[in-house]
Amino acid sequence: MTASPTTPSTAESRKSLIKLDGVTKVYYTDELETHALAGIQLDILEGEYVAIAGPSGGGKTTLLSILGLLDSPTSGVYLLGGQPVESLSRSQRADVRNQRIGFIFQAFNLIGDLTVYENVELPLTYRGMPTDERRKRVNAALERVGMSHRTNHYPAQLSGGQQQRVAVARAVSGDPLILLADEPTGNLDSANGEAIMELLAELHGNGATICMVTHDPRFARHAERTVHLFDGRIVEEERGDRATTDQQELRESGFGIDR
Ligand SMILES: Nc1ncnc2c1ncn2[C@@H]1O[C@H](COP(=O)(O)OP(=O)(O)O)[C@@H](O)[C@H]1O
Ligand SMILES: [Mg+2]
Prior knowledge:
This protein has one domain: P-loop containing nucleotide triphosphate hydrolases (Rossmann fold).
């Protein structure tokens, strides 16, 4: 992967934040071996915004789980900020997750017994943040996603779109250095989807590195680069405005059938 001449000069001066070298992931179930990732080479720069596209079963969620230290590669090397992730202890991995990474999952993973406010507050509590600071951040995050009027509701009392907005608030309340989003707009109508995209763009503008799985070329366009995963391999990379040229192909690749 080389920087194209049209890449803004800032991109060239940015450092590598995430580097995968020959990363594979094999799932073993009964007598079946699934090669979810097969030799991934990926370099994500500090502050970069990368979209991951491709058909269902291509390995997108697996890749995101590995990037977020929720799962480990079967083989290959993952360097995070230049450090091999493999060398981190369990508790160091947990610290990196809590302090530096925000997740928006495909299934929202909101906790049913906690209110909207408490769900968004939880990762901040894990960090040991003082109550006042937590309150400020939770309220600001809920404001940003337009959910301030539902702080005391429980997830089951919300629509799918509202739950997703709360999940986004939870992911961004701690201003993560790295934001990993798996189909963050999958359950939203287009207006709500655009609102989430604006929110991600704002975080990106503030310096966050974003890696977003999406089937939708309209949303992939927000990213600086789109990586196409097929059968666990990166089959294509596109930069910037070129990310819109393969709309038909992307649509055929299974938009919307992944959940
Ligand atoms: N925990 C698991 N155990 C066994 N196979 C899995 C597991 N998670 C994913 N897979 C398989 O790995 C492949 C990639 O899955 P996934 O990363 O979820 O793809 P995507 O997110 O692109 O739809 C699929 O064939 C899937 O069935
Ligand atoms: Mg997936």
